[in-house]
Amino acid sequence: MDDAITQWINSAAGQSILLDMIMTSVTQYGVPLVVLIVALQWWSQHDRLHVRHTCIAAGLSFFMGLGLNQIILLFVHRVRPYDAGISHLVISPSSDWSFPSDHATATFAIAASFLLRGLQRRGIALLAAAAIVCISRVYVGTHYFTDVLGGAVTGILAAAVVRGLYWEGTRVDRLITGFL
Question: Is the pTM above the cut of 0.85?
Answer without folding.
Answer: yes
